[in-house]
Amino acid sequence: MSTCYLNGTYQPLAEARVSPMDRGFLFGDGAYEVIPVYSRRPFRLAEHLARLERTLEALRLPNPYRLDEWAGIVHEIVARNTWSDQSIYLQVTRGADTRRNHAFPIGVQPTVFLMSEALVTPPADQLANGVAAVSAADFRWLRCDLKTTALLANCLLRQMAIDHGCAETVLFRDGFLTEGSASNIFIVRDGVLLAPPKSHLMLPGITYDVVLELAAKHGVAHEVRDILKDEVRTADEVWMTSSTKEVLAITSLDDRLIGDGRPGPVGRQMLAWYQDFKKTVMRGG
Prior knowledge:
By secondary structure, the protein is an alpha+beta fold. It has two domains: 3-118, D-amino Acid Aminotransferase, Chain A, domain 1, CATH 3.30.470; 124-282, D-amino Acid Aminotransferase, subunit A, domain 2 (D-amino Acid Aminotransferase, Chain A, domain 2), CATH 3.20.10. It contains eight helices and 15 strands. The protein is globular.
């Protein structure tokens, strides 16, 4: 049975309880992070906690812990669970009030919750063949840079992919690429790696940063700029990236092949670099 952390106590996940008056339950009033763990080493923990701090500040939600306290809790959760590779889910809500009221309550303590799951990455057949995706209009709110628990729009968009037997929904807003429902999206055109710029319309992904760092390190031509919908549809390669999907090729979009319908050479090379980075940096070996 997995162990979680809830408001200062480590306990079995199945026994954890929160109030139905919690504003996370009533309003989606909270922030979260998902931290990958490789060989029991949390990856870029400082960057994840910094992103959490930015989200909390934007939500006007006091951060309940110092960075060193957060790090201690994360490491303790890792130690108390059995998997060598884990996915740590961390959530802070504004807490439980005595009545349902849209206005922020005064004197309420935040609810802090962390849990661990086994980190599951794409199977070999997906890496070899890529996955299918659909596209949709990005109808989410205008602060997609904040990692909040109010994810109903993302859930609807992700379910759209599931309903079509696909792995992801690629999102466009006003004719430009933003991201996926649960991933960042890269494309390759004429050997150049293209990424949409960080803005309030997309979540600044930690894996997004790693991919751009690897591109710079290995001399891959790349640009961070606005990407037109037509550029995505006629791209040589399209990838999705996240802490769980890593670097995964999208080989068809809306039932039309990307390139020749197989993972392209730039993506295959990036995946190899990423796996080497994971072995030497993330795992420390």
